[in-house]
Structure formats: C-alpha cells, structure tokens
Amino acid sequence: MAAKPSIPKGTRDFSPVEMSKRNYIFDTIREAFHLFGFQQIETPAMENLSTLMGKYGEEGDKLLFKIQNSGDYFKELTDEELLSRNATKLASKFCEKGLRYDLTVPFARYVVMHREELVFPFKRYQIQPVWRADRPQKGRYREFYQCDADIIGNNSLINEVELVQLIDHVFGKLNIRVAIKLNNRKVLAGIADVIGEPDKIIDITVAIDKIDKIGLDGVIAELKSKDISDESIEKLLPILKAQGNNEEKMQILAETLKGNAIGEKGVEELQFILNALKSVSLNSALDIDLTLARGLNYYTGAILEVKALDVVIGSITGGGRYDNLTGVFGMDGVSGVGISFGADRIYDVMNQLDLYPKESIHTTKVMFVNFGEKEALHSLQIIGDLRKAGISSELFPSSDKMKKQMSYANSHSIPFVAIIGEQEMIDNTIALKNMITGEQKTVTAEELKEILA
User: Which fold has domain 363-452?
Assistant: First the structure.
C-alpha cells in the first residue's frame, strides 16, 4: 500500500470554503489599497541570493530558503570543502537563488531596476506569498501571504499618518478590534547611546523585539549573552517597564533622551505622528510601545505593529520607515515607508472569532437537477441567461438519482435547487426548492431571475 502523501510542515492546503474566507480578506485589503491610492505590482517567488542576503540581519539570513543550483553543482567544490560539512559555506557554493523572505527587499530591487519608469512618490502594493525556514507553531508558518503597501521616494511623515489610517480602515472593515503599537528606531538608537552601548543597537533591538515571546527575564539573559553590561541593562529597564498613556511615555522618552540628537529626532517624529492622528477619527487604539523594536535591520524611523485584542496571537501587521534600503542596490537617498498585513494570521483571527459575513462564503446560488439529455439541454439555456445576469448557476453533470443530486447541493451549501422535468418543459416553468426552508414553488424563468438576483 502506497504511503499517504503529506505536505511540508508550516504549509497548508485550503478548501473551497477556506479560500472564500481568505479571498474575502484579500479583497477587503485590496479595496483599501486602491482607496488610498496604491498601485499593484508583482515580483518573482525566487530572487538571487545576492539580493536577499545581508538585508534581514544574521537571524534573518538563517531563515532564508535557498534553492539548489541545477546541474552538477558539486563540480566546483573540492573534496576538502565537501568533507568539511560546513553547511553555510557549501550552500554559498551551490545555491545562487532563494525564495523571497518578504516583499520589501524585492520591492527595493524592483525600484532600482525600473527607476526610469517610475514617478516618485511611488505608492505600490503587493499581495503574494513569502517563505521563511522558521520553526512552525501557532500563527507562524513557513509559507504565508503578505499584503504590502509602501510609499517610496518621499520622506514626509504624512505618509506614516496615512498608513496608520489605512491599517485602521482595514481592521474596521474586517471587524477586528486591534491596538496599533508605535515606536521609532531613532529612539532606540538614542537609548542604546545613553545607556553606553551605541555599538550594540542591533543586539539590543533583536533582544527586546522578543519580549512578548520570552518575557523580560529572557530579554535580560539575551542582552547579557551579547556582552551588554549589567550597568547598561539597569539603565535600560525603566524604558522596558514604562507604563502609562502616550503622553506619559513620551515624557519619559523626552527626559531620557534629552541632549541626544538622534534620540530627540525620534521623539520629534513620534510626536508629529501622534499630533496628526489626533485630527482624524481612529477606531483603533494607538499606543506608544517602548519595547517595540522590529528586528529587521533596514528600519530607520517610525516602526509599528498591530496586535489583535480578542485573540492571543503574534503581530498581524507590521512595518516602518526605511531611509536607504535601495542604497544596497546602488540607488542612494530614496526614503520609503511601508506596512505588511499578515493575511494568514488575520485569517486565523477571523476564524477564531467567526467574523465572516455570510455573503463572503461564495457558492453556487442555484443548481439544476439533471433528469436526462433533453431536460439538461433545456436547463442549460436558462442557466446561460442567469449567468448573463450575474447569478451563479450550475447543472448537475449526470442524471444520477435525485437523492445523490440533492445531497450534492446540500454539501455545497447551495441555497436553491431548480427542477425541470417533462411537465415543466411543457408548461415552460421551473419547480424551485429552497434548500434552507424546504419550501417548493413553481416559477417562470423571469420570476426565477428576480428571486435569485
């Protein structure tokens, strides 16, 4: 007996009902992107490793799925290299491509390659899958979709304000209660400076970015493992433990970073965003979160994450300002800011809270019973007219027993069944059965169209 097939851990199959739900999320996000003036692009699933490596930090590089070269990829390797069993070194020899880790770095590559065609500021969105060689767990997958919106070629903080409004709009439409967490990498750089560890900014941000997963004690242990002194950690703790409303947290930052140029700049940027958003009506909570770090190295200004309030799950949206991401591809001085909706986590949240409207589950509106060739051909004419009117309709393909055909309609949640037998053909009528109420009545083709419209 053949072994039962399986799929890789961290990946999923989706049924028709599940795809209806996912498409409801994608369509909601896509409509919001269009509403806010973003234009769609797509990039390949795989990129050259030279494009991807070094853009996500050491930890990010480890999570890249590398693609083995085709052909005799051992040809250029020495016996000594093969026997060394150095996986990283060997992979660099016979892997030249990798699956994209996110959509932002490929977007930066796209901007540089197509710079002559673009008009700045360029507002783009992408809805595509990405891959990470991470350990699968609840809410964390190896293959998942990101829905990105970026504004590149403009450094105005109005862009950050617009993105917060976009986030608020999307989750309002999806009926998910969220808190939008906001911080600034300049603030974090200033903090690293004032605690006496300016060269450890990456180690500090990578560590505190894990605070929700490993707790404060875990963060302290990781900071110590990176040779950050007890004295510096002691200075950092009041920031990590800061409580209160946004105004109180901003006051703590202002006092802590007074006299530190980069830190003060970060505080100023945060204050602008907060003040600007006071003039618009947000449905979502907006919280300054001094522990928010976002581990990716390319962020340089405002950073944000979104947490669902009614479900225990990781960040469901994140993003921030990156001032020179295109510089690594030879195009300096292009500032950008972007966000990414985690569609798979949003899907999990909506499933747990059962937030899908009934009309989001797309199904056939009416199924015609098949009694034989003559009746089937007659039904197809009516089905053609219904489809022209935008009414989803189908004919059961074979003249099986009525019980089997009705069971098919039930299993696919089809709300109406149309029955056209010999007498209905003579009378030019249709027996229409409501599968929810059980009611059955005789109608004309025009009446059927009105009922189903």
Answer: Rossmann fold (3.40.50)
CA distance 91 to 53: 12
- Judged against a pLDDT cut of 70, whether residue 295 lies above it is answered with no
**350 alpha-carbon distance from chain centroid:** 14
| Cα–Cα distance for residue pair 32/410, rounded to 1 Å | 34
Yes or no: is domain 9-170+331-362 CATH 3.30.930.10? yes
pLDDT tens digits, 334-385? 999 999 999 999 999 999 999 999 888 888 999 999 999 999 999 999 999 9
Q: CA 342 to CA 140: how far, in whole Å?
A: 10
* Domain residue ranges of the chain, discontinuous segments joined by +: 9-170+331-362, 177-309, 363-452
pLDDT one-digit tens code per residue, 117-167: 999 999 999 999 999 998 888 768 999 999 999 999 999 999 999 999 999
- 366-368 and 336-342: which strand pairing? unpaired
Q: Give, as one character, the DSSP assignment of residue 396.
A: -
Bridge partners of 66? 98
Ramachandran bin of 258, using left for φ above 0, alpha for ψ from -120 to 50, beta for the remaining angles = beta
Strand partners, 308: 178
CATH topology of domain 177-309: BirA Bifunctional Protein; domain 2 (3.30.930)
Contact criterion met (CB below 8 Å) for 433 and 416: yes
CA–CA distance, 28 with 343 (Å, rounded to integer):
11
